[in-house]
């Protein structure tokens, strides 16, 4: 690990995965700074800071400060302590953000070392296929988004999402689509057709927007949207942000 680049991180902590296909699994979360999008519903601060918040005792919730950029050696040493203290407790490492693929060249160096400790899961907005290609061989799971304009407030780059998914399926992949009361049938059908065309076996997860600790989509509307998607892509689940209700990160 000599001469490996250091990373601009926001936080490192241990918690339960509250979204998607790895729901309920305990993971090590390594959150990278920066994002290439500015979605209306985003609940995560990803602005670069001089200090990274670190939960040195896994699961304690007590945070200390590491100076940015954080060396890989310091992260590996911390994770080794966690794995020794809590054997078998952690399922995998979640590389998240912001958008971690903005750091793809660094991750290309970091991930082989981290993967010696635990499997690697990438959480991504699914818009940077060229960056994904650099690290796909080092990933075990990819949880990618498809951004719908009715919720994100931005136009959807359908081609980027399609190109991204075609690469992501080299790992165990799932597609998350955030939905709200204003989500239209047409845009959700476009997402379902994309997933079905590129990777019919990939789970598509409908995640209703959560605001003020409440699901922001009515049950009748959720069921209507689930039925709509199922007619095109049968591999569909409806999963809210469970970590919000548990009161964990």
Characterization of this structure:
The chain has 8 helices and 12 strands. The protein is 32% helix and 23% strand. Helix 2 (104-115) runs parallel beside helix 3, helix 3 (129-135) packs parallel to helix 5 and helix 5 packs parallel to helix 6 (185-198). By secondary structure, the protein is α/β, with parallel strands linked by helices. The chain is globular. The two termini are 30 Å apart. The chain has a domain at 9-175: Alpha-Beta Barrel (TIM Barrel), CATH 3.20.20.70. The chain has helices at residues 72-85, 104-115, 129-135, 149-152, 158-168, 185-198, 219-230, 242-246, and strands at residues 9-16, 26-32, 51-54, 64-67, 92-96, 120-124, 141-145, 172-179, 204-208, 210-211, 214-215, 236-238. It has a 10-stranded mixed β-sheet with strand order 4-3-1-2-5-6-7-8-9-12. A two-stranded antiparallel ribbon has the order 10-11. The longest helix is centred in the first third of the chain and has 14 residues, at 72-85.
Feature tags:
two-stranded antiparallel ribbon; TIM Barrel; 23% strand; single chain; alpha/beta; globular; 249 residues; 8 helices; ten-stranded mixed sheet
